Amino acid sequence: MKRSNILNTVFALAVTGMTLSSCNDFLDTMPDNRTTVNTEDKAKSMLVSAYPKNTYMLFCEYMSDNVDDYGENNPETDRFIDQVYNWQDVTEIDNDSPESYWEASYGAIANANQALAAINEMGADKNETLRQAKAEALLSRAYNHFMLTNIFCKNYNATTSSKDLGIPYMEGPETKLSPNYERGTVAEDYEKIARDLEEALPLVGDANYTVPKYHFNVKAAYAFASRFYLYYEKWDKAAEYASLCLGSSPKSVLRDWSEVAKMTTSFEAETQHYIDASLNSNLLLITAISGVALAEGPYRYYSRYSHGNYVATYEDCKATNLWGSYTAFYSRPHTYSATNLDRVLFYKLPYLFEYTDPVAKIGYYRTVYPAFTTDEVLLNRAEAYIMMKEYDKAAADLTTWMQNITTTKKVLTPEMVKSFYDGATYSYDDASKMGSTVKKHLHPAFAIDKEGSVQESMLQAVLGFRRIESMHTGLRWFDVKRYGIEIVRRVIGSDGKPAKLTDVLKTDDNRRAIQIPSKVLSTGFTPNPR
After folding, report:
1. Is-contact 442 459, C-beta < 8 A?
2. What is the pTM of this model?
3. Is the pLDDT of residue 9 over 80?
4. What pLDDT was estimated at residue 5?
5. Which segments of 171-214 are extended strands (E)?
6. What average pLDDT does this structure show over 84-112?
């Protein structure tokens, strides 16, 4: 498969001997030659660039257990996606690569920091416009560091994160060309993210924006806080911020799947609807240079590795679940079966193309994605309740999510959830070590009750629901990391069943932390252990 020529821009993190640069030469000239940000409008304008222009979605999705290998006879692959799927250190250049996301995130952080410095110099307390701009800068800085930490480091845990390698936390504009950076620890990164987040929350507002959904607005900030504190193992704060985001009637702000079911079935129509800024469910929309919509759409793009019928039927969206059959979904998953194509999809991410040369037909693949949704926030709260052993509250949230996406009228109870999962075996416990079910062994660093308990069963439910909710967007990978879920790499045979085991990602496998980009390592930056 030939891909369109895509212009790459580069922002490399400065380490010893490396000069920081970006597509607008922001940091490859001395500070005195940069654009002066000395008005409210200039500060607000700079914050438009405080969001990453590349995305984690494709590589995180293909590292997760949402995809299987359909064999070397399937030509629809390349070296980049081979490396991602097999948890290898990625050496290939691609707009969807970890390196591109690293560069884009640090570029966004640099813009947030320059805007923040200018805002503070103008007087952040001067008026509401500057206060809200300061909040956006802090939230963008915190969010970008949060995602980088969770991708390029081990997941946070209270036991080892004070020793686990972190990423450099950039807290101000550069004042010299080649500063040296230390990695610090994951715990230190989380402390700084929490500091920025808590400073921003009292200041955040919506009045600055023509379209608030493309900025860190109030509800998006609460959504971020709910995810952050969930990953930070601070369950009470995760639940608190989730409740602030959802309000008193969560059902009214969720994605209306019953309306989607009434639409004419069309990839373009449904994906455009999915990212509609007017929907209450979409809290923060980000535009990215990415081919993820092709890889997670009705195309052969990267189809050697796919969310196909086997994993769908036995593990997630087509499996028998607490609501019964998958036919209960308001908008059922779409199934594609043909030569070299076995793909089961929800239509979510739109495929967009920006021509830089219409005659030569070259340009950028793009997509738009909701970085935060109310549906995710509801499941964040359910998980937090489970960890606090408030099972009735968790069951109520799980019921709300389930009744919103399916036609079932069933009301879940903790006992009902436990009974369902008691009846399921664990994935990979069969003789082949490849067989799938809706249940997987959980090995988080934090304490949970034993297998078969109410708490463990409820966690199986919320993780399964979130897997479906976040499908195609890469978020499943972070649950795999947080819960130490072991996953296999297997080749699906011509009969549609697992035929060959090729690898296993163990709970303590160092490959769970993606390797630092090679251009950064080449300067002497400390690599992740392998």
Report:
1. yes
2. 0.93
3. no
4. 30
5. none
6. 97
Residue 17: pLDDT band by 50, 70, 90 thresholds?
Answer: very low
The tokens of 426 are what? 């664990």
- pLDDT of 125 reads 87
Grouping H, G, I as helix, E, B as strand and the rest as coil, residue 107 is helix
Q: What is the pLDDT of residues 397-414, one digit of tens each?
A: 999 999 999 999 999 999
3-class SS of residue 439: coil
Q: At which residue do the structure tokens 């199934």 appear?
A: 335
State the Cα–Cα distance between residues 219 and 373, nearest whole angstrom: 9
Candidates 14, 96, 193; CA nearest to 514 is 96
pLDDT for 353 beyond 80: yes
CA–CA distance, 370 with 279 (Å, rounded to integer): 11
Tokens linked to 12:
């490399």
> At a CB cut-off of 8 Å and minimum separation 6, what does 515 contact?
89, 90, 98, 152, 521, 527, 528, 530
Give pLDDT, residue 2: 32
Q: Which residues of 483-504 are buried (b: 16+ CB within 10 A; e: fewer)?
A: bbbbbbbbbbeeeeebeeeeee
Banded pLDDT at 174 (limits 50, 70, 90) = confident
d(CA 105, CA 151): 12
For the record, the structure tokens of 221 come out as 């900030």
CA distance 63 to 41: 41
Rounded Cα distance between 425 and 2, Å, is 43
Helices 128-152 and 40-47 sit at what angle, rounded to 10 degrees?
A: 20
Q: What is the DSSP string of 32-53?
A: GGSPP--SHHHHHHHHTTSS-S
CB 51 within 8 A of CB 140: yes
Q: What is the pLDDT of residue 10?
A: 29
Phi, psi of 165 (to 5 degrees): -60, 130
The candidate with the shortest Cα–Cα distance to 438, out of 403, 465, 405, 411, is 465
d(CA 488, CA 506): 9
pLDDT for 361: 86
Q: Which residues pair with 49 in a beta bridge?
A: none
